Amino acid sequence: MRVDVISIFPDYLSVLDLSLVGKARQRGLLDLRVHDLRDWTTDRHRTVDDTPFGGGAGMVMRPDVWGLAVDDVLDGDAAGTHLIVPTPSGEVFTQRHAESLASAEQLVFACGRYEGIDARVAEHYRAAGVAVHELSIGDYVLNGGEVASLVMIEAVARLIPGMVGNPDSLVEESHGAAGLLEYPVYTKPPSWAELEIPEVLLSGHHAKIERWRRDRALERTAARRPDMIAALDVAGLDKHDLALLAELGWVPGPDGDGRLVRA
Ligand code: JB8
């Protein structure tokens, strides 16, 4: 996979030389190129921004400079290319986006600063057949798209086939098919700070351990992510799940749509 990142602060992306993403590059699974947007400016002051039409605070990034930069880094035809524009006004980036982007031929990350990038850039590349994704990494505001791009690149890079040593660790984790948060995990020593590990984990009773872990996952999800409980399909829950969820205040809804509601 080829990944291009365009930013006025390319040094912000230097952490991509480290760790998992660095390993993917060394192994030739990832061709990552970071670019300075100012390389595509044509004026003496290397200007990338201007005042907003219609008035208002701050500056907006010029579409002409962005157009030259994106045209230059686009590799081959539009099919297989995804242009990702981090923005607090975007759709929220999830593991589903990461999974979908992991099979792309090329990802181009356009990192905005100031009040963002002129809206015609996304419109233009969409019209040209590029899959354009305006994405937010959560409900908070950063100073620019660089850190959001780092987050998304790490989430995608670890899903590239051949990246993670043990593929089991990919299928069993949070935000996978189960739609539940992960259960709590423990390791040695068995007693620490006057805290003991749950006895069932020492029992060697595989079915009991599985049930205990699922109960803890359901409890955690109900407490921390009620939105994920509301999105569960009742058909995927067993009798024991439904009994525990009822104790936690979640019951099958009145309209029989296969969803849970608060009792
Ligand atoms: C200017 O919060 B964010 C984010 C904030 C930004 C820009 C891009 C993303 C551009 N401010 O993810």
UniProtKB/TrEMBL annotation:
<dbReference type="Pfam" id="PF01746">
    <property type="entry name" value="tRNA_m1G_MT"/>
</dbReference>
<dbReference type="GO" id="GO:0052906">
    <property type="term" value="F:tRNA (guanine(37)-N1)-methyltransferase activity"/>
</dbReference>
<dbReference type="InterPro" id="IPR002649">
    <property type="entry name" value="tRNA_m1G_MeTrfase_TrmD"/>
</dbReference>
<dbReference type="InterPro" id="IPR029028">
    <property type="entry name" value="Alpha/beta_knot_MTases"/>
</dbReference>
<dbReference type="GO" id="GO:0032259">
    <property type="term" value="P:methylation"/>
</dbReference>
<feature type="binding site">
    <location>
        <begin position="137"/>
        <end position="142"/>
    </location>
    <ligand>
        <name>S-adenosyl-L-methionine</name>
    </ligand>
</feature>
<comment type="similarity">
    <text>Belongs to the RNA methyltransferase TrmD family.</text>
</comment>
<comment type="function">
    <text>Specifically methylates guanosine-37 in various tRNAs.</text>
</comment>
<feature type="binding site">
    <location>
        <position position="112"/>
    </location>
    <ligand>
        <name>S-adenosyl-L-methionine</name>
    </ligand>
</feature>
<comment type="subunit">
    <text>Homodimer.</text>
</comment>
<keyword id="KW-0819">tRNA processing</keyword>
<protein>
    <recommendedName>
        <fullName>tRNA (guanine-N(1)-)-methyltransferase</fullName>
        <ecNumber>2.1.1.228</ecNumber>
    </recommendedName>
</protein>
<keyword id="KW-0963">Cytoplasm</keyword>
<feature type="domain" description="tRNA methyltransferase TRMD/TRM10-type">
    <location>
        <begin position="1"/>
        <end position="229"/>
    </location>
</feature>
<keyword id="KW-0949">S-adenosyl-L-methionine</keyword>
<dbReference type="InterPro" id="IPR023148">
    <property type="entry name" value="tRNA_m1G_MeTrfase_C_sf"/>
</dbReference>
<keyword id="KW-0808">Transferase</keyword>
<keyword id="KW-0489">Methyltransferase</keyword>
<dbReference type="InterPro" id="IPR016009">
    <property type="entry name" value="tRNA_MeTrfase_TRMD/TRM10"/>
</dbReference>
<dbReference type="InterPro" id="IPR029026">
    <property type="entry name" value="tRNA_m1G_MTases_N"/>
</dbReference>
